[in-house]
Amino acid sequence: MPESVKNSGKVAWRCPSNIALIKYWGKHGDQLPNNASISITLQNAFTETIVTFEFDESINNIEVIFEFGQQRNESFESRVNRFLLRIQPQMPFLRHLRINIESKNNFPHSAGIASSASGFGSLALCICSIEELLFGQISGFLDFRQKASYLARIGSGSACRSIYGGFSIWGQNSTLPESSDVYAVDINHHIHPVFQDIQDSILLVSSEKKQVSSSDGHALMEHHAYARIRYQLAESKLQELITALQTGDMEQFILITESEAVSLHALMMLSESNYILLKPNTLAIIEKVQRFRAEHKLPMCFTLDAGPNIHLLYPESVREEVQNFINDELLQHCEHKQWIHDRIGKGPVKLDIA
Ligand code: PMV
After folding, report:
1. What distance in Å separates the CA atoms of residue 160 and residue 170, rounded to the nearest whole number?
2. How far is the CA of 161 from the centre of ligand 1 (A)?
3. With a threshold of 0.85, does the pTM exceed it?
4. Pocket of ligand 1 contains residue 195 by CB under 6 Å
């Protein structure tokens, strides 16, 4: 370790969640995706993580305390411990660390916002900052963000896309040669201005615990009867979406985004032990969104994560009309009339906690 660098300290990052347009569903090996995915990183829904660390060569197994929302959380702690063990080949110094992790989300747990993406994103960024503080540089990768994205992926696949603001892609594909299966890349330089201020209104249909987790859902893709055709379709839809994003083709964007959302849920329904995460109110909202779009010719569409809540996407220019529509017609289908307003964001921020 160079003499000028610290062997103890504190680092902190805020990392937002993301919503996928082309969905990652099915994986292999060390959390590698079976198809490439594209997402939008949000602005308002984020996790903040503070890591206090001490480097001590006399210890040989990392010592971790994990607090979530100011309370020690042992089930998260064991997931974080597994994650820290799995990233040790890239971060061998970790075994000589004593760390205290304090993490908090600024959005409700069951809101249909991927908290594992923002959580592992912020933790991976903190780990990279610790490496930088201890050794003065980031080893083995092109830059800081690429390494953080690589590490975040190991915690939760979709987390690797949250390391970048705006649009990012994860998964090797023929359209973008710079893409990779092991980290996400920033694709904002390909994006037409009409998509650069996309809004995301998250309509909370149900906060019930999901009957099948995302990791079980990924596993069900392994022997899925439609797996091969799914991966072929995902690749061609990804190519079409990239073209639409480059040329500003809103109609195609809407078509592909909605088709991907329902494909994800169709895969769940067609899996060996079939299951349905959509609720009657999800379908009621989808029907109204499609009808309102046809009648008012508004650029607006829905997408879904692995749950019943709706993400309504639209450009800022129609924000007022869409939000009036939400208030007048959609809130009656939401649990306790709840919705969260978000938008495309600038990506993670390093927090000054000195
Ligand atoms: O990153 P995971 O393992 O939580 O899986 C995320 C899967 C989806 O959210 C349904 C799709 C995606 O690409 O984000």
Report:
1. 7
2. 10
3. yes
4. no
pLDDT digits (tens, 9 = 90+) for 323-354: 999 999 999 999 999 999 999 999 999 999 86
pLDDT of residue 114: 84
Asked whether 304 lines ligand 1 (CB < 6 A), one says: no
- β-partners of residue 310 are 203, 304
Token pair 């971060």: residue:
91
pLDDT number for residue 27: 98
Pocket test for ligand 1, best of 25, 161, 304 (most atoms within 8 A of CB): 25
| 27-49 residue pLDDT tens | 999 999 999 999 999 999 999 99
Give the distance (Å) from ligand 1 centre to CA of residue 183: 14
Q: Looking at the DSSP assignment, which residues form a beta bridge with residue 12?
A: 50
Cβ(156) – ligand 1 distance below 6 Å? yes
Nearest one of 16, 216, 12, 260 to 117, comparing CA atoms? 16
Could you tell me the domains of the chain?
8-190+346-350 (3.30.230.10), 193-343 (3.30.70.890)
Fill in the DSSP letter of residue 171: S
Q: What would the pLDDT profile of 116-135 be if each residue is shown by its tens digit?
A: 999 999 999 999 999 999 99
The separation between CA 334 and the C-alpha centre of its own chain, rounded to angstroms, equals: 23
Q: Which atom of ligand 1 is nearest to the CA of 31?
A: 3
Token duo for residue 22: 């082309």
